[in-house]
Specification:
Largest sheet: 2 strands, antiparallel
Strand content: under 5%
Shape: globular
Oligomer: single chain
């Protein structure tokens, strides 16, 4: 590359120009077959970003700056442990025996030995986490992802995942917490902690992506599709890659 700097710079400029052109073309309502609601989705994305900049990001930043790292790790572990319980149920529904076993062992180990899940003993023991939800279970049953859909505040989704959302919400262990004030406090803590975990990632995305909307959409659809298939194939099992 050093032998021909002019040629290299020219190629980079051409690639950048092509990417910008593609990003501009992607804003058309029918540009991506997996995103027929693109005008609405972009509008909702802008709304979510404005709310994030005005409220969510400042709160998450303050939480990160004030709360010690070990405490934040414990909070993440606690909510992750609750997620393992629901992942176990969905793995059973998907007839994934190994994943169901791992999730059950993780939940039992961390709940009993990890102070209710605050300590992630299972990960230290090498037991893998397999994140599953009812949207992925529907995918396993043959329900296609459907079009991409951006939800208010919740962000990226698909028609299938949106239809599955009420089941995921109903099965949330926090729903059983009483009184309601304590339940809402836990909901808020989980939301703020999750946003704090994404602070660095969103900063990198904002700085690197030519069109953050298209980038987020494409990555999300690939994560929700089966390995080896594209998001708009329509016959995926909805399984997340193991490293997600």
């Amino acid at each position: 590359m050093k032998k021909n700097t002019t040629t290299t710079h020219g190629r980079l400029a051409a690639a950048l120009g092509a990417a910008l052109l593609l990003a501009g073309c992607a804003s058309g309502p029918q540009a991506n077959p997996a995103d027929p609601f693109e005008p609405y989705n972009r509008g909702m994305t802008t709304f979510n970003e404005n709310v994030d900049k005005a409220v969510l990001k400042p709160v998450a930043t303050a939480y990160r700056d004030v709360t010690p790292q070990p405490v934040r790790t414990g909070v993440s572990n606690f909510f992750g442990n609750l997620g393992d319980a629901w992942s176990f149920v969905n793995s059973v529904l998907q007839l994934r025996g190994r994943e169901a076993f791992d999730s059950l062992v993780r939940f039992g180990t961390n709940t009993v030995l990890g102070l209710g899940g605050v300590l992630d003993i299972a990960s230290e023991a090498g037991i893998a986490r397999h994140k599953q939800d009812f949207g992925l279970t529907l995918g396993r049953w043959g329900v296609p992802t459907g079009p991409y859909l951006v939800l208010p505040l919740l962000g990226p989704s698909t028609v299938r995942d949106t239809a599955a959302l009420p089941v995921d919400l109903y099965a949330d262990p926090l729903l059983a917490v009483d009184p309601v004030s304590a339940r809402n406090s836990l909901y808020a803590l989980r939301f703020v902690n999750r946003r704090a975990e994404l602070l660095r990632a969103t900063s990198v995305l904002d700085a690197a992506a030519l069109d953050s909307y298209s980038f987020t959409r494409d990555v999300y659809l690939r994560l929700r599709a089966a390995p080896g298939q594209t998001a708009d194939d329509g016959d995926d099992d909805g399984r997340l890659p193991e490293d997600y």
